[in-house]
Amino acid sequence: MTSTPAAASPPVASLPAAGQRVELNIGGMTCASCAARVERKLNRMPGVQASVNYATEKAVVHLPEGTTVADAVATVQATGYTAELPEPPRPAVDDAATGMEPSEPGRTGRSPSCAAGWGSRRH
């Protein structure tokens, strides 16, 4: 008898051939089981591969062509959590462009021990 091997599911690290990779901020998770639940719901979407990290409150989601970020966000929200795209990083401020003097390291007006909350012990 010849048996047909069961189709192995693709590893999470493999990317879909087409589509996009997005990172979502996930809110409302209170434990690792919450992260597993969100991940399971996202991975049940056709062609989606997702990994959710409870500690960072982020999900990395690989969306196939035809699936939108809004679809992924709606799935997370239907599961009972919040999801949103992270804000884009702010551009660095150039001191010359603002007309401000460049700050000098160590010129905070306080000693390093005071800045860290040390050295202010009363005996």
Write a brief caption for the model:
By secondary structure, the chain is α+β, with helices and mostly antiparallel strands.
What does it look like?
It contains four helices and four strands. By secondary structure, the chain is α+β, with helices and mostly antiparallel strands. It has a four-stranded antiparallel sheet. Strand 2 (49-53) and strand 3 (58-63) form a beta hairpin.
Portion of residues in beta strands equals 15-25%
Task: Give the number of DSSP strands.
Answer: 4
Cα Rg? 23 Å
Q: Helix content range of the residues, please?
A: 10-25%
The number of helical runs is 4
Instruction: Outline the low-pLDDT stretches.
Output: 1-17, 111-115
Assembly state of the chains shown: single chain
Order of helices and strands: EHEEHEHH
Tell me the major beta sheet. 4 strands, antiparallel
Structural class: alpha+beta
Distance between the termini: 85 Å
Average pLDDT taken over every residue:
77
Biggest sheet strand line-up: 2-3-1-4
Coarse shape? globular
List the helices and strands and how they pair.
Elements: E1 20-27, H1 32-43, E2 49-53, E3 58-63, H2 69-78, E4 82-84, H3 95-98, H4 112-115
Antiparallel strand pairs: 1-3, 1-4, 2-3
